[in-house]
Amino acid sequence: MKDKSVLILGATSAVARSLAACFAREGARLYLAGRDAFEVERVAADLSVRFGVEARWGRFEATEYGAHQQFFDEVVGSMGGLDAVVSAMGELGDQGLAEADFNHARAIMESNYNGPASILTYAAGYLEKRGGGLIIGISSVAGDRGRRSNYVYGSAKGAFSLFLQGLRNRLSACGVKVMTVKPGFMDTKMTFGRTGMFLVAKPEDVAETIFKAAGSGVDVLYVPWFWRWIMLIIKLIPEPVFKRMKL
Amino acid sequence: MHVQRLDGVEATVAGWGRYPVVRTYLKRPEKISALTEIIASAEDRKLLARGAGRSYGDASLNPDGLTVLTERLNRMLSFDPDEGILRCEAGVTLADVLAVFVPRGWFPSVTPGTKYVTVGGLVGCDVHGKNHHKDGSLSRHLGKLRMTVASGDEVDCSAALNKDLFWATVGGMGLTGVILEAEMSLSRIETAYIKVRKIKSRDLDETMALFEEHDSRYRYSVAWVDCLAERGGLGRSILMLGDHARLDDLDARRRENPLSVTPKTRLSVPADMPPGLLNRYSMGLFNGLYYAAQLAADQQTIVDYDSYFYPLDAILRWNRLYGKNGFVQYQCVIPPAESKKALTELLSSCSRSGRGSFLSVLKRFGQQEGLLSFPMPGYTLTLDMPVSPGLFDFLDELDRIVLKYGGRVYLAKDARLKAATMRQMYPNLDRWLAVKAAVDPDNAFSSALARRLELCPR
After folding, report:
1. Which residues of A have a catalytic role annotated?
2. Residues A214-240 pLDDT 10s
3. B-chain residues within 8 Å CB-CB of A195?
4. How many CA atoms lie within 13 Å of B414's alpha carbon, on the beta-carbon side?
5. With a CB-CB cutoff of 8 Å, which residues 20-39 of chain A face chain B?
6. Taking 50 as the threshold, does the pLDDT of residue A198 lie above it?
7. Which run of H or E residues covers position B79?
8. Which of B12, B26, B72, B183 to mutate to test the interface with A (most CBs of A within 10 A)?
9. How many helices (H) and strands (E) does chain B have?
10. Cβ B26–A36 below 8 Å, yes or no?
11. How many Cβ atoms are within 10 Å of A166's Cβ, its own excluded?
């Protein structure tokens, strides 16, 4: 990763920060993007101080689709090219509110699917033309099966997982790797204090796992690993049974 | 553990001594704006920032109020390599600072005996280290502090700007507002090692004579005291003097990588030990063996900084050794003229009561500023004692001795001091209360310690 250029979208989340630290530790040059410019700047400063690397930053709004192409071109220009793009965008939102108000549901869908899909469209085009590179998309186990407790968020993450899968299929021929990451519960502001959480992973540990897997060409990463098996079981439950379960 | 509530996650928390334990509502902001929002919407609920929770007693506890965990507000914001000044958020830990800066040849100007503490906590307790006699406490090495105060405003303060707020915030136990950012100076080092000289003493007289003879020539000094030794041996100690090793002091192998230290295997205490494990006999045995283990009366070694400054950090959760009832750490300081008499009385009381301490340390302080900062010129003695029947009466007795000789007790360790006693120990309390009244008139920031010691505006 030494001297590679990496764009991290949604850089203020706990896992993105930790992942950025992994890249920085190995000497990568970073561009951090996020909605809250004040916070993105602080995260960038932190990485510069801790790792002595160059960390640029900029404001990025997931739903300003019209600005995405230009934003991406500017990042490429300012970094002198890009080797990797990480999407860690998304908001959990409030399932109850989303059930009552589609505007909220749409906000969840756009921040978790449309936004990432939009910016990755330009990133994919760039890397395809360049003939190599890496895309890491942070999706969620919530996208593996629709559940009453978070199906709006889950549907967006599920769509994002499919988008990444298609992208991987399209880009494998030209040497661009696409990794789909499906974290289980992480100790972040999304989960802090919520009931029904179990096996909660630390974002630093999740980030380390993602970073290692990215280096070894994994396609779909469940993290921590046991979520692959938990989700397999959940996916195998027959629908007539599943629909009556409270999950 | 938790029940989700709009006003925070209900949880029970304690300090490092695990006494007392209280119910509170936790918030854990990951952005400055989230922190500001918590303060703005607290209404009549009391607020308190909590860092690593490493103060021993009730300083970081806010029963039934909102406890704002600062652990995710831990960004380092800038470092000036000419002046050695680090600007960072309050949730940055000293362990982070060491990991980042020791390899670059910098060391914290002041460090307490654990590195698992946050910058916010260090400031709030105005901590001291083994170099207090030379370098003073942390407040002497701070630049600007940026805080959010009860009004919701962000305010900067330093020893030059908004002085009153600064001197009330250092050592102010988190009661003047939430620290967002602090500037802290680091000192240059050539190696990650400490050149240590250990000198044995036979009794208190000799211990104090050794301090007075040697400590002005060493950056660091501290004595481990066998507080269970009786009569003739009362106050027998091992004085540990230290300086940052220079490159020339290292052997060829260490000189290759002078600023890197191999990470240690750390052990953890897996569960609560039975409450009686650390009793007068086991502690007496430990103390006797520790004293006897050093054969030479005067010896020199070179050790890495972790072993010198943070020996207990090698055992994670060592507080469990005292059992589930918890323990109290008692740290007091006595002015120089009366130190000898007071220390003799304090150590005799310990020895007589059999309430020895697993680890007791003695150190000589230098000059100090600050309204509620603990240090003052003189000798400071630290004792750990498991919570058990009669302990608080016994500590009241120690308070009387400390008070009689014009000393005081350290609030960062305290869980049981009485308000009236504290008032006598801290002569600048009224000045501190005046600043508190100006900056937080409705007493929005509070803690169990503040309520116990009546640290609120009238």
Report:
1. 153
2. 988 899 999 999 999 999 999 999 999
3. 2-4
4. 24
5. 36, 38-39
6. yes
7. strand B76-80
8. B72
9. 14, 20
10. no
11. 12
The answer to whether B161 touches B144, Cβ cutoff 8 Å, is yes
| Digit-coded pLDDT (tens) for B273-295 | 777 777 777 777 777 777 777 77
CA dihedral sign of residues B181, B183, B189, B194 = negative
Q: Are B370 and B171 in contact (CB under 8 A)?
A: yes
Torsion sign (Cα): B433, B171, B27, A20: positive
Using the predicted structure, report yes or no on whether residue B2 has a pLDDT greater than 70.
no
CA distance B289 to B287: 5
Residues 139-168 (A) with a CB less than 8 A from some CB of B:
none
Cβ contact B171:B139 at 8 Å: yes
- Tokens representing residue A122 in the block: 């330009």
- State whether residue B58 is helix, strand or coil: coil
For the record, the structure tokens of A6 come out as 């990496």
Structure tokens of A91? Answer: 């908001």
User: Which chain B residues are within 8 Å of A50, Cβ to Cβ?
Assistant: 76, 96, 100
Alpha carbons B404 and B411: distance in angstroms, whole number: 18
CA distances B132 to A211, B166, B343, B371, Å, are 43, 20, 19, 17
A193-202, B112-121, B179-188, B220-229: least confidently modelled range = A193-202
**HSE-up of residue A236 (Cα within 13 Å, Cβ side):** 6
Mean pLDDT of B304-333: 88
Alpha helices in B183-335 (DSSP H): 204-214, 252-256, 280-293, 305-309
Q: Closest Cα of chain B to A45: distance in Å?
A: 5
Q: Please report the number of interchain residue pairs, chain A to chain B, with beta-carbon separation below 8 angstroms.
A: 51
Instruction: Name the residue among A39, A50, A194 with its Cβ closest to that of B4.
Output: A194
Q: Which of B6, B26, B27, B31 to mutate to test the interface with A (most CBs of A within 10 A)?
A: B31
Burial B42-56 (b: 16+ CB within 10 A, else e): beebbbbbbbbbbbb
pLDDT in tens, B378-391: 999 999 888 888 99
Q: At a CB cut-off of 8 Å and minimum separation 6, what does A165 contact?
A: A180, A220
> Cβ of B33 and A50 within 8 Å?
no
Torsion-angle region of residue B443: left (phi > 0), alpha (psi -120 to 50) or beta?
A: left
- Interface check for B84 against chain A (CB to CB < 8 A): the answer is no
B47, B444 Cβ separation under 8 angstroms: yes
Q: Which residues of A touch B76 (CB under 8 A)?
A: 45-46, 49-50
Could you count the other beta carbons within 10 Å of the beta carbon of residue B76? 22
